[in-house]
Every structure is written in C-alpha cells, then in structure tokens.
Amino acid sequence: MELCRSLALLTGSLGLVSILIALSTDFWFVAEGPRFSFHSGLWPKEFHTEVPDYLRATQSLSILATLWGLVSVIFLIVSCIPSLSTRGYGPLVSSTMAFAAAIFAVVAMVVYTSERWNQPQHPQIQTFFSWSFYLGWVSAVLLLCAGSLSLGAYCSGPRPGYDAL
C-alpha cells in the first residue's frame, strides 16, 4: 500500500507540474517559413483579437484538470499523515480526482489537436506541434497513472471492520 501511495504521489505531482508548465508556456504550435519562425500557446498575446472557441475550451478544461490534479495530490498527502486521514478513504478520493483530472486533460488535448490538425496549410509554411503540446499529453498520462496507483493503494489497504464502526 505504501509503495502504491508513494508512486501515486510522485506521478500525481509530476502530472500536476507538467500541466502547469504546459499551460504557462507558449510552445504549443510552431510555424516556420522561409524567413520567419512563429510559436503560439493557449494565451494569445494580442489583446484586441478574438480568441477562438477551441482555445477557450482548451484553456478551461486544462485549468479544471490542474485543479482536480491539485486536489488529488492534496488528498494523497493528507492520507500519508495518520492523524489527518479518515479510515483510509484518502486514496479513494485521490483516485477519483486524478481520474477526473485525466479526463479533463485528455478532452482538452483532443479538442486542441483536432482543431489545429484541421486548419488549412500553406505550401511554404511548415507547421507542427511543439514541446508544450506534448507536455500536455504527458500530464494526461501521468494523471491517469496517479489515479490507477491511488486506486491500487486503496484496494490494498486495510478495511475497517466492525470494531472500527
């Protein structure tokens, strides 16, 4: 149980850090032409332009994934402290929150990927996804692993008996 909980805490923390870095950096999409290079992220720098709906959806879902991931990590930390944990339900709550964070992260990444993939191409401009985008996908996988490990910690933990009621 302790190994699963420790690994869940590690993967959950790495997932949380990776989604925070992905949210805050501007290297989701790169375009390179004959004489220029351009990169963009989720937060447009021009204040007078209309933000596309797919960017707003990706922003919102990524923020929700970050918040659920933070709640998951907090419950895992609390479950490691015996005086604060309540009958071993910390890993179960953490697992639920990590799975919710993973779902939000996957949906955010699918929305961004599908919209960027279908944009028209120019013959002289090469476009590709960059490291912030891939870090977003890594965070979804890490949060899914954290949820699985938390669930394993809950299932392998002691069950309360009649004397605990």
TrEMBL record:
Family designation: Belongs to the PMP-22/EMP/MP20 family.
Q: What does this protein do?
A: Regulates cytotoxic granule exocytosis in effector lymphocytes, thus acting as a critical mediator of inflammation in a broad range of infectious and non-infectious diseases. Essential for cytotoxic degranulation of natural killer (NK) cells and CD8(+) T-cells and for the activation of CD4(+) T-cells following infection. Plays a critical role in CD8(+) T-cell and NK cell-mediated cytolysis of target cells and contributes to the cytolytic activity via the perforin/granzyme pathway by enhancing exocytosis of LAMP1-carrying lytic granules.
Could you tell me which InterPro entries the record lists for this protein?
A: PMP-22/EMP/MP20-like, PMP22/EMP/MP20/Claudin
Gene3D superfamilies reported in the protein's UniProt record? 1.20.140.150
GO CC annotations? cytolytic granule membrane; plasma membrane
Q: Which UniProt keywords apply?
A: Cell membrane, Cytolysis, Inflammatory response, Lysosome, Membrane, Transmembrane, Transmembrane helix
Membrane spanning residue stretches: 7-31, 61-84, 96-114, 134-155
What this protein is called in its record is Protein NKG7
**Organism this protein belongs to:** Leptonychotes weddellii (Weddell seal)
Q: Which superkingdom heads the taxonomic lineage of this protein's source?
A: Eukaryota
The record's subcellular location field reads: Cell membrane; Cytolytic granule membrane
Q: How does it sit in the membrane?
A: Multi-pass membrane protein
Q: Where is the signal peptide?
A: none
- Which Gene Ontology BP terms does the record give? defense response to protozoan; inflammatory response; killing of cells of another organism
